[in-house]
Design goal:
heterodimer, A: 128 residues, 5 helices, B: 138 residues, mainly alpha, 79% helix, disordered N terminus
């Protein structure tokens, strides 16, 4: 009789206490998956620019619609978070920031920098 | 332990006990290349991604001529193609490791792996072709 064990990725609410370290870790995966979905839309946009005509007109009005704008915004949030936390991962690979204190501090820095980059990017888009 | 040592990578293919070893002891002595490629593409994607995102967020809502003019000039075309290659390779490795963790049957894992490889190949081909078409000016 095999033991009934809880399986990932459904550990969070019931089996694990909330911690920022594990929350950011699963968020890295979730944003990675979101960016993978975004790569389909990105390819669609590139193909539309290359093709022009009806396809571009339809794509253009979709991107400018509320849904398209929200998707683009979420894509940018996912990108900046994944970028910052990815750099945190590279630091870990190089052997830095593994102590509990720095793991937590790195997590807060990642959130802050990702937010700042998102705000800066959209300020640049909307004001420049 | 000394037996373990004789099993070098160069003789691994001819050693009949390798599969048994792998099944019972874990390490497949494989995967470092993928791990390295994930890190290398991650490093490349720091500058490429920042450049691409800063440009994309402005161009995504612009008219076709502006976007096409940007994509057909040499430096953006080159950097966008590099971004696409590094990004989609990075995506493939990442998605496969997600499947490896969460897909708990061998058949489904194989199917998911094939599907994501095919999807990546299509995305890579289509997006690079689109940029090339604009760059070559047709």
């Amino acid at each position: 009789m095999p033991m009934q064990r809880p399986l990932s990725p459904f550990m969070f609410p019931t089996w694990y206490r909330f911690q920022i370290t594990s929350a950011l870790s699963i968020l890295h995966r979730l944003t990675g998956i979101a960016l993978a979905v975004g790569s389909i839309l990105l390819t669609w946009w590139l193909v539309a620019v290359a093709a022009g005509g009806e396809l571009f007109a339809a794509t253009h009005s979709f991107i400018r619609s509320p849904v398209g704008t929200v998707l683009l915004f979420l894509w940018s949030v996912a990108f900046f978070y994944h970028l910052c936390n990815g750099i945190r991962h590279l630091a870990w690979d190089a052997g830095y920031g593994f102590e509990l204190r720095s793991a937590y501090r790195g997590g807060y820095i990642v959130i802050a920098v990702a937010l700042v980059l998102t705000v800066l990017a959209w300020a640049y888009v909307l004001l420049a | 332990m000394s037996d373990n040592r004789s099993l070098s990578n160069s003789t691994a293919l001819r050693d009949g006990s390798v599969l048994r070893r792998v099944r019972h002891l874990g390490s497949a002595r494989d995967g470092l290349r993928e791990w390295r490629l994930q890190r290398l593409t991650a490093l490349a994607l720091i500058p490429l991604g920042l450049y691409f995102t800063a440009s994309l967020l402005r161009l995504a809502t612009s008219d076709r001529l502006t976007a096409a003019a940007w994509l057909s000039s040499p430096v953006p075309a080159l950097l966008v193609i590099l971004f696409l290659l590094a990004g989609l390779a990075h995506m493939l490795i990442g998605l496969r490791s997600v499947f490896l963790d969460y897909v708990h049957s061998r058949a489904r894992l194989l199917a998911a792996g094939l599907l994501v490889r095919a999807a990546t190949a299509v995305l890579m081909g289509a997006s690079v072709l689109a940029v090339l078409k604009l760059f070559l000016g047709r």
